[in-house]
């Protein structure tokens, strides 16, 4: 098994996160915390009816949690919120393209959890 | 040139620990997380399987050969533990670990010794298990919890304690050795201050009993808690030592079989100490494993282990501090526990990269959130040592920390 999860794409998103920062205008906001790692993610979502028009995030934590937030926000822009609500581990792993150990799964899933909680609140 | 320990024949010791025969990926296991849990020598593993193969039965219950043997083995383990820390065997209570030991005695103290308005002193160096019980119970019963804060270097200043202690102070609960900073606290001096003020002293010995010789009578410790799994024994067994005259005065906090002498519909009488504090079927094989672990530790010699670890600790500090961007925490003189951060790289990212080389370290807050807050950090990466660690292990760690930096540059 290739145990390297710090592939170029992940490190690129970690060092240069896309959609990072707090926007002036947004419709919904949510933050979540992963107590095991101390990872923090806040998301700011702007909706156009059922479509995610824009999404930004702030946060800090391990490379996996932050890169996942960057990759995910990039991916879901323009998508229907009902589709996003259905995302699970499988979709996130596919997006990240790495094999994550059980213990680090929480880091990888923190941003989708934050987004889904934001959409469901 | 390969550096050798002056105190231990580590290569020989390693042969006693089957886990070092396995590989992590293609790499040899470099285990630097003994503060979390230790590995087990074959003699400990054999003691458990022998118990089940030859003597398995409940203790203090049946009047037949097997039960008598099991009871003898269990009580011999108690005596072994007592001798190990300089206590009497009726002062040794078997529990499931440090956490249960502290919770158990805390509940007993709150129900039958401490009163509303009393004060308890603990520190911001503590593991949550020696912090949260005091915080919760103090709030619930109207006591005041006072925090003795560490200095910038990570030491506890005795002068500060003198200022915090009052005639209302009934208990000082403090760790002997910090599981994050490796700080070695002056227990004897803290005990003197406590007793001068009619306070009890409780010591969290989770990180000290496995690594250094402790004598509860010489140090004048009232209460001591530690875990078997950090001292070569199995998980699920721990020890609570309480001075006899305190044990006689406090109520048990767990009730049921084994801890009574008589039960009627109206009332119950407790068994003599220490049994009145051991409700239910105990962890028999765990107690037996502690006995085998103590035999092993005594054979190697706790002083040798302590000196070996102090050497490793110094070597690691000197080596790691040379890595640009690496910050070490804690005092200069510390036990075999080294905490650090490397630039802004998250400790879990460091651990994951090191794991690809077979190196096991711990990253995170180490169950010490108040301490992390006082250091203004979210977590650290921690390397901790035991009798099976070598100078080479530390050289590997240092070498691959450079690789971590490379990955995250
Ligand atoms: C200082 C200290 N106290 C208490 C504990 C808790 O021990 P256990 O989890 O075995 O109950 C630990 C273990 O991590 C520790 O390091």
Description:
The complex is a heterodimer of chains A (about 120) and B (about 400). Chain A has about 120 residues and is α+β, with helices and mostly antiparallel strands. Chain A has one domain: Sufe protein. Chain: A. Chain A has helices at about 10-15, 65-75, 80-85, 90-95, 105-120, and strands at about 30-35, 40-50, 50-60. A three-stranded antiparallel sheet of chain A has the order 1-2-3, with helices on one face. In chain A, helix 1 crosses helix 2 and helix 2 (about 65-75) packs across helix 5. Chain A is globular. Chain B folds into two domains: about 10-30 and about 300-405, Alpha-Beta Complex (Aspartate Aminotransferase, domain 1), CATH 3.90.1150; about 45-300, 3-Layer(aba) Sandwich (Aspartate Aminotransferase, domain 2). The longest helix of chain B is centred in the first third of the chain and has 21 residues, at about 65-85. In chain B, the strands form five sheets. Chain B has a seven-stranded mixed sheet with strand order 4-10-9-8-7-5-6, sandwiched between helices. Chain B has a four-stranded antiparallel sheet with strand order 13-14-17-16, covered by helices on one side. In chain B, helix 5 (about 130-140) links the parallel strand 5 and strand 6 (about 145-150). Chain B is an alpha/beta fold and about 400 residues long. In chain B, helix 3 (about 65-85) packs across helix 10 (about 285-300), helix 4 (about 100-110) packs parallel to helix 5 and helix 12 (about 345-355) crosses helix 14. Helix content of chain B is about 40%, strand content about 15%. The interface of A and B includes residues 4, 64 and 104 of A. Pyridoxal-5'-phosphate binds next to helix 4 of chain B. Pyridoxal-5'-phosphate binds near residues 97, 99 and 175 of chain B.
């Amino acid at each position: 098994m290739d145990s390297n999860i710090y592939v170029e794409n992940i490190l690129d998103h970690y060092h240069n996160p896309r959609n990072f920062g707090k926007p002036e205008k947004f419709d919904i906001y949510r933050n979540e915390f992963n107590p095991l790692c101390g990872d923090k993610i806040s998301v700011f979502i702007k909706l156009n009816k059922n479509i995610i028009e824009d999404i930004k995030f702030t946060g800090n934590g391990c490379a996996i949690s932050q890169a996942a937030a960057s990759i995910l926000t990039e991916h879901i822009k323009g998508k229907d919120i009902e589709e996003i609500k259905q995302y699970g581990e499988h979709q996130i792993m596919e997006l990240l393209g790495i094999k994550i150990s059980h213990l680090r799964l929480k880091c990888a899933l923190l941003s989708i959890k934050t987004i889904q909680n934001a959409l469901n609140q | 040139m390969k550096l050798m320990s002056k105190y231990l024949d580590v290569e020989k010791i390693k042969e006693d620990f089957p886990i070092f025969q396995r590989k992590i990926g293609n790499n040899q296991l470099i285990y630097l997380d003994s503060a979390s849990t230790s590995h087990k020598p074959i003699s400990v593993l054999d003691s458990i399987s022998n118990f089940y193969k030859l003597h398995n039965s409940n203790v203090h219950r049946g009047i037949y050969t097997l039960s008598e043997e099991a009871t003898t083995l269990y009580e011999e383990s108690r005596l072994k533990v007592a001798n190990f820390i300089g206590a009497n065997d009726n002062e040794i209570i078997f529990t499931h670990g440090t956490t249960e030991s502290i919770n158990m005695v805390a509940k007993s103290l709150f129900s039958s010794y401490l009163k509303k308005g009393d004060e308890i002193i603990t520190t911001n160096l503590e593991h949550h298990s020696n912090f949260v019980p005091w915080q919760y119970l103090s709030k619930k019963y109207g006591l005041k919890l006072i925090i003795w804060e560490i200095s910038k270097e990570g030491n506890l200043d005795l002068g500060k304690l003198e200022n915090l202690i009052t005639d209302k102070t009934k208990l000082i609960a403090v760790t002997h050795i910090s599981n994050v900073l490796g700080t070695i606290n002056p227990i004897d001096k803290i005990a003197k201050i406590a007793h001068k003020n009619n306070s009890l002293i409780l010591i969290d010995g989770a990180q000290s009993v496995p690594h250094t010789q402790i004598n509860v009578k010489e140090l004048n410790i009232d209460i001591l808690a530690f875990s078997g799994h950090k001292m070569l024994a199995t998980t699920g067994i721990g020890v609570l030592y309480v001075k006899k005259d305190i044990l006689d005065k406090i109520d048990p906090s767990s009730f049921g079989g084994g801890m009574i002498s008589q039960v009627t519909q109206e009332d119950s009488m407790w068994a003599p100490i220490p049994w009145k504090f051991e409700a239910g079927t105990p962890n028999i094989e765990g107690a037996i494993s502690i006995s085998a672990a103590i035999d092993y530790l005594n054979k190697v010699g706790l002083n040798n282990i302590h000196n070996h670890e102090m050497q490793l600790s110094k070597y690691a500090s000197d080596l790691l501090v040379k890595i640009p961007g690496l910050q070490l925490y804690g005092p200069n003189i510390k036990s075999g526990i080294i905490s650090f951060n490397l630039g802004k790289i998250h400790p879990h990212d460091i651990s994951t990269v090191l794991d690809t080389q077979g190196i096991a370290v711990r990253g995170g807050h180490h169950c010490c959130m108040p301490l992390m807050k006082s250091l203004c950090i979210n977590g650290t990466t921690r390397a901790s040592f035991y009798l099976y660690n070598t100078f080479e292990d530390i050289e590997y760690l240092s070498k691959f920390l450079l690789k971590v930096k490379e990955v995250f540059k």
